[in-house]
Amino acid sequence: MIDIYKNIETPCFVIDKFELDNNITSINEGRKVFKNSIIGYSVKTNSLRWLLEYFNNNTDFIFEVVSPDEYDYVSKIGINSKKIIYNGPCKNKESLEYALLNGSIVNIDTYPDLLNIEKINFPVSIGIRINVTNNT
């Protein structure tokens, strides 16, 4: 460990930009095999503003959010709605409508999501997350 980190108290999050860039390069090399692939970065996993802005400015990654608060957060730091995947069971009608109206990728996985979409007064395109079980 480098001495400059010796006196830092936890919790502490250190980003090695060189390794980060190497990882981005490796991911993009792997994507060449899957021509239509996209990378969705989980904001819930690490919502560090610097990291989100770095990905936004230096990659074509999109950002997966799971709540109205996360959606609002990434929007406020300048991430375009078209670069947001909106997942999770905590969507409210207002945030769902805003995401759909502004071109985000929206996946629904709950009955309340479906009921809220029924109330929206414009055509929508959504993804549906399902859980398939094998009951044989």
Strand and helix map with partners:
Layout: H1 17-31, E1 40-42, H2 49-58, E2 62-65, H3 68-76, E3 84-86, H4 93-101, E4 105-108, H5 111-118, E5 127-128
Parallel strand pairs: 1-2, 2-3, 3-4, 4-5
| Overall 3D form | globular
Largest sheet: 5 strands, parallel
Tell me the fraction of residues in β-strands, as a range. Answer: 5-15%
* Alpha-beta classification: alpha/beta
Question: Rg to the nearest angstrom?
Answer: 18 Å
- Low-confidence stretches are none
Run of helices and strands: HEHEHEHEHE
What percent of the residues sit in helical stretches (DSSP H or I)?
Answer: 25-40%
Strand order within the widest sheet? 1-2-3-4-5
By DSSP, the count of extended strands is 5
Let me know the average pLDDT: 89
Number of helices: 5
Query: Termini distance?
Result: 52 Å
What does this protein structure show overall?
The protein has a five-stranded parallel sheet with strand order 1-2-3-4-5. 38% of the residues lie in helices and 12% in strands. It is α/β, with parallel strands linked by helices. The N and C termini lie far apart (52 Å). The relative contact order is 0.10.
How would you describe this structure in keywords?
five-stranded parallel sheet, 38% helix, 136 residues, single chain, alpha/beta
Question: What is shown here, in short?
Answer:
The protein has helices at 17-31, 49-58, 68-76, 93-101, 111-118; strands spanning 40-42, 62-65, 84-86, 105-108, 127-128. It has 136 residues and is an alpha/beta fold. The model has no long low-confidence stretch (mean pLDDT 89).
